[in-house]
Amino acid sequence: MTMVNAASAVPAPKKQKISQFRRLLWHVNRTDLGWVTKTALTGMQLGARAKRIEMLNTLPVTPEWSEASRKLSEDGYVDVTSIVDRNLAEAVAGVADNKVSRLDELAGKQQLGHKSFWVSLLDEDLVNGAFATDHPFVRYALQPSVLRIMGDFMHELPQLSDVLLTLSRPTENKPLSYSQLWHLDHDDKRVCKLFIYLTDVRDNKDGPLTFIPAPSSKSFRNTLKSHMSDDKVFSKVDRSAVKEIIAPRLSSFIVNTARCLHMGSRILSDRTRLLYTATYIQPPRMYPEPPARFRAAGSLSEVDRAVMRL
Ligand SMILES: O=C(O)CCC(=O)C(=O)O
Prior knowledge:
By secondary structure, the chain is an alpha+beta fold. The protein has helices at about 5-10, 15-30, 35-45, 45-55, 65-75, 85-100, 105-110, 135-140, 145-155, 215, 230-235, 300-310; strands spanning about 75-80, 120, 130, 160-170, 190-195, 210, 245, 250-255, 260-265, 275-280, 295.
């Protein structure tokens, strides 16, 4: 008698095979093998890359910014509080404070997604999901110092992917989830985030952004598991490697979140934490471009347009 395996008797539909292939590619791209994909994509757009290098070189440079870029490359993070434009940071904080003062009204309108401990407060500023380029959140992300520091690290003008305001609140006795667990960002192969604390982060009850510098995070680079518990992480890395960013309101820092294992928003008691985040990647993007996140308003330089793909 011939036995036929039910699974092999019916051929898998073509579509299913494609999606399995995509899933596999997605996993592979998260590991160091993803550099093969990235290099191939970059190779197909060498002209665009040359132009982005040229544009990076038109930006001003100072010894302090070069040192910050060196630190970002070596350690995976750098404090830029003394480098960034304080007035722009104040403008970001002004927008954020206004949103928080209307929290109940805004939270009521929002459809809370899976990250119920994060309330996104900027929805009302978007038109078709896009920010105007003269919005303080966008202007902060376009500062020449930031573009230069990140660009020197990426060896070309970075691409601004998103800007975000998040209010983190206590999750009481719920198990830790999503960004409260240790993870690497896999938006692309090179991802850096620019943060501003918009409330004081005085101790660990305020849920500081917490990370492990790039050299000590190395052993997690090819881990397929996306979010990890403390136990899992500390079975491989000594706790002394951990950096908690305890810093006052308007502190600003850049973290290479693709290379530094990180987590945060573990808010305790009655605390809340307000955080600005701008996400940058090294182009060309590995995955299909999402819908436009920025819409032109006011005058824009060639560099600004290239950074936002406008
Ligand atoms: O809430 C936090 O501090 C973590 C943020 C985070 O994981 C991220 O922006 O990738």
